[in-house]
Automatic annotation (TrEMBL):
Included stretch of the parent chain: 231 to 510 of 510
Name of the protein this chain belongs to: Diguanylate cyclase/phosphodiesterase
UniProt keyword Membrane, yes or no: yes
Species per Swiss-Prot/TrEMBL record: Rhizobium loti
Residues annotated as domain EAL: 24-273
Record keyword Transmembrane present: yes
Keywords, in A-Z order: Membrane, Transmembrane, Transmembrane helix
Length: 280
C-alpha cells in the first residue's frame, strides 16, 4: 500500500481491483495455486554486524506471476491475510528457509516475517514445531519478525504463542519499530530479543536531532533490557556511521545488499565469511 507506493514501485493491484470482491477472490485463487506452481520465491537480504560481517539474512517473499511479473509482498500479503491463506504462505516460507539455511555459512541466522494474523491461531506454533522436526533444523537458527503493531495489540493468547515460539528456541524481533505506538515500557514486558528500527528514523538521522536522540535512547534502554537493536534501511555509508554512533548493534539495507535469490546471496559466502570492506 502506502509503503510500496513510497518506494516508487509499480502497483500491480490497484485500489479499484482490490475493492472488487470478485477480483480479490481471483487473486486469492491465483495465490493459492502459486504455491503449487512454484511461483513463490524467498529472497534474502544480509543483516550485518558493526564490522560489516554477516550476522544473518532476512527472508523476503516474492511472487513471480507468469503475466504480472514479480509482485511485492506489500501487495499480496494483505490479500492473503484476509483468510487462512496466510497460514499456507507462512508454512511455505518457513519450509523454504529451513531448506535454504544449509546453503549459508554455519552460524548465520535466518529471519522470517510472521503476520499478526498467523499469531491469532495456535497453528503457528504447531506448524513451526512440525517443520523443525521434519527438516531436522533447530529453532535457534531462526528469528521470527513480528511488527510493532502486532505487539502493541497483542492479546494474552498472542503473547502466549510468542512465549511458546521462544520456548521452542526461536529469537523474536520487533519489526518496523517507531511506526506504531510502542512505548518504551513495552520493551520490558514483550518476549523479544531484538528491535528493528524503522527505516524512516535511519533516513532522518543525518538531519534530525530528535531521530538521533530517539535512536540513542532506545539503544541505551535496549542494552539494559538485553535486547539488540537493528537499524533497517541503511542506504549510505553516512547512515551506517550515524546508526553505529547512536548505538545500533546490527544493520540492514541496500548499502550492504539488496534482497536477492538464495544462490546469488549464498555465492557471496567468501565475502560474508570476513568483514565486508567498509571504512565507516
Ligand atoms: P519488512 O519486514 O520491514 O522488510 C524490509 C523491507 O524493506 C523489504 O521490503 C526490503 O526489501 C526493504 N528494504 C531493505 N533495505 C532497504 C533499503 O535500504 N531501502 C529501502 N527503501 N528499502 C529497503 P519488501 O521485500 O518489499 O517487503 C515488504 C514487507 O512485506 C516486509 O517489510 C514485511 O512486512 C512483508 N513481508 C515480506 N516477506 C514476508 C513474508 O514472508 N511473510 C509476511 N507475513 N510478510 C512478509
Ligand atoms: Mg521484516
Ligand atoms: Mg522491517
Ligand atoms: Mg520496515
Amino acid at each position: 500500500e502506502s509503503k510500496a507506493a513510497g518506494r516508487g514501485r509499480v502497483t500491480v493491484f490497484d485500489e479499484e481491483m482490490l475493492s472488487d470482491k470478485r477480483y480479490r477472490r481471483l487473486i486469492e485463487r491465483e495465490l493459492r495455486a502459486a504455491v503449487y506452481l512454484g511461483e513463490l520465491e524467498l529472497h534474502y537480504q544480509p543483516i550485518v554486524n558493526p564490522d560489516g560481517s554477516a550476522y544473518g539474512f532476512e527472508g523476503l517473499i516474492r511472487w513471480r506471476h507468469p503475466v504480472r511479473g514479480l509482485i511485492s509482498p506489500a501487495e499480496f500479503i494483505p490479500i492473503a491475510e484476509r483468510s487462512t491463506l496466510i497460514d499456507m504462505l507462512g508454512e511455505w516460507v518457513f519450509k523454504r528457509a529451513c531448506a535454504d539455511i544449509g546453503h549459508f555459512l554455519p552460524g548465520r541466522r535466518i529471519s522470517i516475517n510472521v503476520s499478526g494474523e498467523q499469531l491469532k491461531r495456535d497453528e503457528i506454533v504447531t506448524m513451526c514445531d512440525r517443520v523443525l522436526k521434519e527438516t531436522g533444523r533447530s529453532a535457534a537458527q531462526f528469528v521470527i519478525e513480528i511488527t510493532e503493531t502486532v505487539a502493541t495489540a497483542a492479546t494474552p493468547e498472542i503473547l502466549r504463542r510468542l512465549e511458546a515460539l521462544r520456548g521452542l528456541g526461536f529469537h523474536i524481533a520487533l519489526d518496523d519499530f517507531g511506526t506504531g505506538h510502542c512505548g518504551f515500557n513495552y520493551l520490558k514486558t514483550l518476549p523479544i530479543d531484538s528491535i528493528k528500527i524503522d527505516r524512516s528514523y535511519i533516513r532522518s538521522l543525518a538531519h534530525d536531532q530528535v531521530a538521533q536522540i530517539f535512536v540513542s535512547a532506545l539503544a541505551q534502554i535496549a542494552r539494559i533490557q538485553d535486547v539488540t537493536i537493528v537499524a533497517e534501511g541503511v542506504e549510505t555509508q553516512e547512515e551506517f556511521a550515524l546508526a553505529k554512533a547512536a548505538g545500533c548493534n546490527r544493520f540492514q539495507g541496500y548499502f550492504f545488499g539488496r534482497p536477492a535469490p538464495r544462490d546469488k546471496v549464498a555465492s557471496l559466502r567468501a565475502v560474508h565469511a570476513e568483514p565486508l570492506a567498509l571504512s565507516a
